[in-house]
User: What shape does this take?
Amino acid sequence: MRQTLRINIPNLISFARLLSVPLAVWLILSDAYLWAFWVFLVACASDAADGFIAKRFNSETVLGGFLDPVADKALLVSVFVALGHAGFLPTWLVILVVFRDGLILLGALLYHVLYQRLSMEPLLISKLNTTVQFLLVLGVLGMAGYELEGRTVVELMIYAVAATTFASGTAYVWVWGRRASVLEPGE
Assistant: This one.
């Protein structure tokens, strides 16, 4: 059973990931790509750890249900913007990723305001999208930090991120649209 606002280890891990966002962005903008790679890798590991601990020790909370995806999206959107600014990612991809997350946030707020119900249940395509985004960022930062070549792999990952980002955004619009079509505002 999910507890409401209890602070626990998984929530603290998610909060620490949220706090890593400014550090990761600053490292990228300071051309400290190797350090940014390691900070981002630890953040990725923390995403896996908080979910594992919450499920394994039955410590899922409503707070964690919101904090975990917010930390993921804050980290990914911020790092995508920083990598786009640094010239590592194409502008169109950064816009697509930011637009999708903004659309989901706006849709969630609108859905909550209209129907007073919102459960944070990530879709499978969204989990895949987050994983592919994490892998792209790790690849870009790792190659930049370790001065490796591999532009073809990065190009393929860019298109994989674009495809899963588009599919995920479309899926959320479709799912929430279907849910909203069976509810009346205020029910």
Q: What stands out?
A: Residues 18 and 70 are 8 Å apart (CA to CA). The chain has a mean pLDDT of 91. Residues 9-181 form a domain with the Four Helix Bundle (Hemerythrin (Met), subunit A) fold (CATH 1.20.120.1760).
